[in-house]
């Protein structure tokens, strides 16, 4: 969603300021530009910016064309040198940029008051953390961190259910969004205070945009969606997050949960194809493909399976060294059996000239092995056996040497199962009879 | 790129002559393992190509035998066990993890923990224990399966009477029941999320402390099995992409429950062995993603588990000398690319060090160095002999002696009786 990368930057604050100014001059100016409108809304919903926009001093600031710096300096952490530059300017002149910044900046940034010093909190005694007399893994918390969490502990101890407690959870989350105890408490408060869950959705949207790899934020969103029983924004939201990181595991987890819970399967295969168009190597997208089909048509219908096999072969031809496509081909044919699928051996063998890769070779091994396992009459068993061993050796010694141990094992297994007593020596490791001493000690009950 | 190839080629010739034994990454054929993008560039391929370039630069200085920077790691760990900068505020809800990562790293390095420090850790973890059972991320926080796993492991590493006594077994059992779900899974904490990590955390602590009751893991193995997908690996919950961390947790949990044979071991084996990167030597977490030092344990650690599982099934074709992955290549990746010169280990070149990566890179190094068990032991130490780490238990990831000692201690005590029956917690916020 941001202009430059997956993180907010000066460019965004600049544009945001510009668009906000547009709205001041003409409140409906963004109405016919939904993307811009949504962009402004999302940034305005970010907790610190929201607080800033509601702040009286900010509202009084004249429009000076450089509001971005004001916004940025108040809501985001900036380097020490930049902070010093801003603080140094304080000359009383009309409409200088520096003055405009200084004017509103004081009460928000320079004037931060610790909770322990706020009169509205005077009745609550902060509870310091009890790490004991000789702490270990002691974190050098900032004063702000200590102050907020000392107060949080006090609230928790008193089981206080109030607006100020709710506001404090926002602060605590901002300092450490991984504190699941705080999130839990926030949820208790959301219900006890009957808070506006739509507002909470806006909040959690902003937090996730900011920290998309955190467990707690996604779980929180799921809870709010459940309470509202409203999944209507979810697929679009997840798509938004995936547009920044197409493999975000939490995002996919949330997406799958929404789809299953609310039976929202329509359009997902199309979405997956879009993602694969963008990046055919996106393994998460291949997994989603399997997920959708599994839960809708299934793979037992031969026309579906055909379609999938042809689709996958097409992708393989585009990028033969894309392991995901080969794995998918293997995955969907497991049940039916690789060697039973008509014409597959021919199609894959044909690819060898133009699309050779260790994955193609491994696929052939799998196919031959399947032919052996099913004792398929369509194939010459001896030929399958010999070819499988030959390819295992080829992979172990030349084409996939990193997996040498594995291919040698496969070779030995094949010989053991299908060999006629005069095996091709494909490994340098003759297997002795197993004894219990070779068994790694693992089970708790084994002495 | 051409001059780089020439440089690598020249150095590789030198290495072939000088180093003994020669490093895989300097062999003639190593450059053929570079990622081929088939002329079709996507986000995935660009990231992989960049990663390879970065790694190529790392291996150049290594004329001599790769060295584990023991002194530096020791000082990094020793300091961290006491003090952490404010950069660690984000782990304020994971402090037992910090104890475990550091203590385990120290035990792998065979650095002793002074008795006073050990006692201080015990007292701290005691403060992290919840009155309702289980351990939390820090004093006054709610109990959570992850810090519970970490705390129990840390206490078992310490292995003193004081350490064992910290654990309130009765309450711990209550806690496990309080997060157990009807479908066999576990939520990570009351009102929290479900994924396969929770089953592993629960199985690990319950088996070590001997609190497994007949009903505690009802349905759990079936739920874990449903996490195995079309790729052969396991996802965090059924339906998700196969992922190294979750695959390890699910498999190790099944081993503890004695149900590992119910997995499709063949497809799992194929999946995990395919996760070793042909160029880098380290492991990726998922297909078509980048290498990361921590998967040296989560992924490579699966091979000992699978070896044993297959063995138990009567497989007579298993190797008697090696786990089924390229042990040398993994050690090369860790030693050449994952060490911070100032101490600590990391994901990949260019990333910062942290205690999590220090723990799992060292754990993976240990797995790669040691094959077998105390009766049949085969060591493959890359570089100097001093690089040798202590062996680690592939299920619990603490040293095998500590596992045995803890099990022996707790098995002398009776299994507690569940004192509270708590309903399913999914309705709670």
TrEMBL record, chain A:
Q: Which SUPFAM superfamilies match?
A: GST C-terminal domain-like, Protein prenylyltransferase
What is this enzyme's class at the first EC digit? Answer: transferase
Region annotated Disordered, chain positions: 418-447
**Which cofactors does this protein require?**
Mg(2+)
Please report the stretch or stretches of sequence annotated as the GST C-terminal domain.
Answer: 1-63
This molecule's function is given as: Essential subunit of both the farnesyltransferase and the geranylgeranyltransferase complex. Contributes to the transfer of a farnesyl or geranylgeranyl moiety from farnesyl or geranylgeranyl diphosphate to a cysteine at the fourth position from the C-terminus of several proteins having the C-terminal sequence Cys-aliphatic-aliphatic-X. May positively regulate neuromuscular junction development downstream of MUSK via its function in RAC1 prenylation and activation.
Protein name listed in UniProt: Protein farnesyltransferase/geranylgeranyltransferase type-1 subunit alpha
Report the source organism: Sinocyclocheilus rhinocerous
Identify the coding gene: LOC107710485
From TrEMBL, chain B:
Task: Mention any one GO cellular component term assigned to this protein in its UniProt record.
Answer: protein farnesyltransferase complex
Q: Which SUPFAM superfamilies match?
A: Terpenoid cyclases/Protein prenyltransferases
Q: Pfam families, alphabetically? A: Prenyltrans
Write out the GO biological process terms: lipid metabolic process; prenylation
Reactions accelerated catalytically: L-cysteinyl-[protein] + (2E,6E)-farnesyl diphosphate = S-(2E,6E)-farnesyl-L-cysteinyl-[protein] + diphosphate
EC numbers on record: 2.5.1.58
Q: Tell me where in this chain the Prenyltransferase alpha-alpha toroid domain is found.
A: 68-398
What note does UniProt attach to the cofactor annotation? Binds 1 zinc ion per subunit.
Transport found in the keyword field: no
Q: Which InterPro entries match?
A: FTB, PGGT1B-like, Prenyltrans, Terpenoid_cyclase/PrenylTrfase
The entry's keywords: Lipid metabolism, Metal-binding, Phosphoprotein, Prenyltransferase, Repeat, Transferase, Zinc
- Cofactors, names only: Zn(2+)
A single MF term (Gene Ontology):
protein farnesyltransferase activity
Family of the protein in this entry: Belongs to the protein prenyltransferase subunit beta family.
Assembly notes: Heterodimer of an alpha and a beta subunit.
The record's annotation in PANTHER family points to: GERANYLGERANYL TRANSFERASE TYPE BETA SUBUNIT, PROTEIN FARNESYLTRANSFERASE SUBUNIT BETA
Protein function? Essential subunit of the farnesyltransferase complex. Catalyzes the transfer of a farnesyl moiety from farnesyl diphosphate to a cysteine at the fourth position from the C-terminus of several proteins having the C-terminal sequence Cys-aliphatic-aliphatic-X. Catalyzes the transfer of a farnesyl moiety from farnesyl diphosphate to a cysteine at the fourth position from the C-terminus of several proteins. The beta subunit is responsible for peptide-binding.
Name of the protein: Protein farnesyltransferase subunit beta
User: What organism, scientifically named, is this protein from?
Assistant: Sinocyclocheilus rhinocerous
